[in-house]
Amino acid sequence: MSLTIVGLGNPGAEYDNTRHNAGRILLSMIAKRAKLEWKSDMKLNALTTTAEIDSTRQKSGRPLGGQAKIKFVLPETFMNNSGNAVAPLIKSQKDLDKLVVIYDDLDLGFGTMKISYNRGSGGHNGLASVAKRVKSEKFWRIRVGIAPVTPSGKIKKLPESQKGTVYLMKAFSPKEQDELKKMSKKIEQSLAVFAARGGAQAMNEFN
Question: Is residue 124 annotated as part of the catalytic site, yes or no?
């Protein structure tokens, strides 16, 4: 199955390592590990590259065979206009079924991920922009937790001074960056399962 994977975030060096850029960061890590080269797509106003992911690389280890071509997209618009870079790629529900958007989620603890389908934006402006421009919420998401957690893994309540944009624009620490690298490998594995056996199976194995 061919897929289109979109990593949401803001372009520009000042946003490179911020929490709101988790989707963009993780997709970039996967591309870097595969030694892929980004190219500027003026039509989409995005950076794009194409990968082949071995569909045999899945959590269960069962041999499936075959390669899946996957298009990576990093919108070069700011977050609120992310959908402008995605809409030209979506011309049918079939295209939507192959769309996966990776983005930061404050409702999930840092170090966790969740695959979802056909749900609301949860207040995430980038995801809302994508849904608005493709005129549907019937596409896949990989939600990446960025909320602070306790040692036991429970989500911490943010103090008033850290809520909203302040926390979203906070940089990841070196330790957190190491955790993101681990997360990127897990996401890559989930994409291999997604390409080989579909989103529902990826959801069953990785949620």
Answer: no
